[in-house]
Amino acid sequence: SQPLQDFCVAINDTKNGVFVNGKFCKDPKLANAEDFFYSRLNIPRNTSNPIGSTVTPINVAQISRLNTFDICLVRIDYAPYGGLNPPHMHPRATEILVVLEGTLYVDFITSNTDNCFITKVLNPGDVFVFPVGLIHFQFNIGNTKAVAFAGLNSQNPGVITIANVIFGSNPPINPDVLTKAFQLDKNIVTYLQSKFWSDNN
Amino acid sequence: SQPLQDFCVAINDTKNGVFVNGKFCKDPKLANAEDFFYSRLNIPRNTSNPIGSTVTPINVAQISRLNTFDICLVRIDYAPYGGLNPPHMHPRATEILVVLEGTLYVDFITSNTDNCFITKVLNPGDVFVFPVGLIHFQFNIGNTKAVAFAGLNSQNPGVITIANVIFGSNPPINPDVLTKAFQLDKNIVTYLQSKFWSDNN
Amino acid sequence: SQPLQDFCVAINDTKNGVFVNGKFCKDPKLANAEDFFYSRLNIPRNTSNPIGSTVTPINVAQISRLNTFDICLVRIDYAPYGGLNPPHMHPRATEILVVLEGTLYVDFITSNTDNCFITKVLNPGDVFVFPVGLIHFQFNIGNTKAVAFAGLNSQNPGVITIANVIFGSNPPINPDVLTKAFQLDKNIVTYLQSKFWSDNN
Amino acid sequence: SQPLQDFCVAINDTKNGVFVNGKFCKDPKLANAEDFFYSRLNIPRNTSNPIGSTVTPINVAQISRLNTFDICLVRIDYAPYGGLNPPHMHPRATEILVVLEGTLYVDFITSNTDNCFITKVLNPGDVFVFPVGLIHFQFNIGNTKAVAFAGLNSQNPGVITIANVIFGSNPPINPDVLTKAFQLDKNIVTYLQSKFWSDNN
Amino acid sequence: SQPLQDFCVAINDTKNGVFVNGKFCKDPKLANAEDFFYSRLNIPRNTSNPIGSTVTPINVAQISRLNTFDICLVRIDYAPYGGLNPPHMHPRATEILVVLEGTLYVDFITSNTDNCFITKVLNPGDVFVFPVGLIHFQFNIGNTKAVAFAGLNSQNPGVITIANVIFGSNPPINPDVLTKAFQLDKNIVTYLQSKFWSDNN
Amino acid sequence: SQPLQDFCVAINDTKNGVFVNGKFCKDPKLANAEDFFYSRLNIPRNTSNPIGSTVTPINVAQISRLNTFDICLVRIDYAPYGGLNPPHMHPRATEILVVLEGTLYVDFITSNTDNCFITKVLNPGDVFVFPVGLIHFQFNIGNTKAVAFAGLNSQNPGVITIANVIFGSNPPINPDVLTKAFQLDKNIVTYLQSKFWSDNN
């Protein structure tokens, strides 16, 4: 998107269920500093979930003024000993991540037909880039909790967590498709589809 | 991308390993009809591979004149009784597909946190849309082979076949990551990583 | 355009005559598979009109979910012995066309000052590209009907059929302009302006 | 296009026949004021040609610094008593025109299926807008010469003069196509194709 | 922005204080030539203000049809002997300017760390380009009034006059910030902040 | 910009002084994890300069893989008791900033004719947005050093520090222009132009 005025602060009022690409905006004369502000991103998040990580997004849903600007921010907390921000991708954004605490093993995988896997161990102060639409993850390989901040170039990047989408969609995907695609026994597929897939976002 | 001239026909000569976003182009005075042309898309493709489908892309690699134009075309052939274009997505394109022959069960899955699964059975003449970056598949549920054509709004949409990227990357992903992300036994993960992941593109 | 969410399914309700660039959208929670679907594109169209061709567009007017996605699809039927999709252009899209049946003589013409005319005879399975804004046509030079499918990179490409715009506009263009521009006798211009200009879209 | 640096001054040196979308640029440290400058746009142009108008474009070919910036400027001179900037369109730009001298009858025509013809008589100081890809003209209906300046939002808008493209392309279009499309006698078509089509650009 | 239809004529009715990126539009069937038209840009403007210049913009606020088209036009009048269009920039547009009358000393300054100052004296018929977001000015160094026209590639370029923004904002900037940033005595800063900053737009 | 492939890792080799919009890229087969990586952003920077702040950008000059992706990252260190990131703007990016340490008084100012000044005091964990092209600053009003990280949606946002551009350009701006524009005594202008303007980038 491209702003056509200084700012267009999003409103949540959808006017009888009608939407636009992005968001409706409020009168710019009524905009104030609170519209551009979000707080408490310094507070450590609870990571006691099965995946061991928590993503705190600051996108257009949190800062209404981000509407029409292609940018947002996230904080990611990782549990010690294996906290994982699992394989996922953003359909509408590239991500640049900086590690604040801990040691992360990170990767992204290129598209077909190479499926080249590019990986790196990151320590505090290290920066890494994950291109739009490519699958990537971060894995805490240290003994302490880890924290990272990241910028993404969309007001609403979207997140597609691969395992959740594949095995946890509602309604479930036809198990014959997954059996064939993932070369798994059908019993394993239906077992996986019966599980609860926690979402760290 | 946005064309800044009538056309900019791609050349493959990369001038000593140097590239640009998209492609270098040849002198427009030397462009001729062959640069804009590709043939034999009507010939049925062989689908005798483990997945039972073959994708034939006509993108900037096949028609050099597509460079700077956000469009390409694919033909997809599906084997009878279960030919599958497995769960995948295109990081740089939305797709509009029309069925020419056969009966396809198709879907796409929305991004978190809904992971809503939208599905439809398509017969010849039916048209369906798969949004940019969302995971989708087509599955031949008929007794005959199936054929579809699709337009995508990129000169080089990219294809990320989920199973291949997750289990078949080179080098392999750390199996601890996959064990945790997919809630699979580690033995199954390492077994899957040892398999050959055929690519239908 | 660029989608700022997974999808933004167009609604036709314009809320008291108010419009936006593109379309207003409905609540994404109410989206269903029918919004993404169109059928019967396999049925041959009637081409018994003066031009001998019929274009069947599947754009945002037919598939409401195409809104915000720069893509659409058309089917074109050509009568045997001279069915013509007459000289026209799309102000908002490049087109990639594949021939399914018949033999088409196709062209496009570059912009000034070259006005280079690039032409090709296409048979089933042949693919050709028509750049955004350039005038092009397809002419059935075979003895049988012809059929083509094409993808265009806009949700609403627009069609400007040159003869209709020049001689059939409402109200008519000042005939002195056309007499001078086309170097025609003024009587011929006024005669052409009095004719009925059929539209194959 | 979108600039990715302060400026990228075009060079004409194409490095052995290799091109890019837009232009190659010179070292920004070598840029100087002459790269951003063009003069003598105040000099009346000679309009003694069959069409009675002359267009003087200042695009990336004249000001090399326009490269990557979506903007250019034109001066248009019209002969008294019928000077015509004939029906044409720009495949890559919208145009905003201001009349400096004289009285112009201007129009543009919307795309199918309306082909609505919107027209206005403009006097000095009047401003009018011609949307991207739509056919438009200006016709001097006054007794004196006329002059207009216009801004277009492309570094290289392209110009497609309809009559020249249709009847003056090289090689010529198959006359059967034009006979059918324009509902003209074939003799008139071949006569028109034999003429010289002057270009006012 | 990118038009998704032939045109989308802006309306000022904001429907209960709700806005969109750009503008809401009226029913295209109700569009008429007046929507595309503005007059009297040939009339010299009064420049008897402290700065000695007047900018007359023709953007989406004046021509409602410019909505969705990235283009607008301005007329600038400069008083004799020092009329100044003071240092300013447009956050959303590149500008191409042509001098109609008078002699202007113009410049723009590149971004850090070079802050290179590119300057030129322009006479009638001279054309110059000011890149998006870079600070520039025009200064009448002749003995007569000067007039220029300019095209900008936005429907609403925005104008940020540096002195007005720095010393005339409402409420005022903390004077300690300006004292430090501009290396000025704090008394001068508070004196400047107490002045009236006239706006030539 | 918009990537047309998975990534296009910038090279600095400009091939005999020739450039493109953005950067030339190296062979994607030769890309490795180092191209996507930057380290030591956790190290506090020295802020003992006249302005009392240091900006450490991680853009395409530091991470070559950012080429074609509209994103970068900066670290900003502020000295205690008045460290100032002085009034500046980015011609090609919107910024989202998060405070890690200290207390910052921040603002941005809207474009004419309102010049509305929106301000906020930020503490650790607070997030604020600065729109593209609008002038803004951050001022450390706490007794300790402050640190912030920010994401910007450009690979090369550019920085225009207002005081440096106005008074420190090379060659200097004509002092008559600044005297008039800033309503300053000419002696003050020439004194300011003689100073050294330190750059915190």
Total strands of chain A? 13
Biggest sheet strand line-up of chain A: 4-5-12-7-10
Helix content of chain A: 10-25%
Whole-number radius of gyration of chain A? 19 Å
C-alpha termini separation of chain A: 24 Å
**Content of β-strand of chain A:** 25-35%
Helix- and strand-based class of chain A?
A: mainly beta
Oligomer: homohexamer
What is the helix/strand order of chain A?
EEEEEEEEEEEEEHHH
**Count of helical regions of chain A:** 3
The overall pLDDT of chain A, averaged over residues, is: 89
Which pair has the most extensive contact?
A-B, 60 and 60 residues
The description of the largest β-sheet of chain A is: 5 strands, antiparallel
Uncertain spans of chain A, ≥5 residues at pLDDT below 50? none
Shape of chain A: globular
Outline the structure in words.
6 copies of one chain form a homohexamer. Chain A is mostly beta strands and 201 residues long. The first copy, chain A, has a domain at 160-200. Helix content of chain A is 11%, strand content 31%. Chain A contains 3 helices and 13 strands; from the N terminus they run βββββββββββββααα. Chain A has helices spanning 162-167, 175-182, 186-194, and strands at 18-19, 25-26, 37-38, 53-58, 72-78, 84-89, 95-101, 104-109, 117-122, 127-130, 136-140, 146-152, 160-161. Chain A has a 5-stranded antiparallel β-sheet with strand order 4-5-12-7-10, with no helix packed on it. In chain A, strands 9-8-11-6-13 form a 5-stranded antiparallel β-sheet. In chain A, β8 and β9 form a beta hairpin. In chain A, α2 crosses α3 (186-194). The longest helix of chain A has 9 residues, at 186-194. The first copy, chain A, starts with 17 loop residues before the first strand and ends in a 7-residue tail after the last helix. Chains A and B meet through β6, β8, β13, α1 and α2 of A and β6, β8, β11, β13 and α1 of B. β10 (127-130) of chain A pairs antiparallel with β3 of chain F, so a sheet runs across the interface.
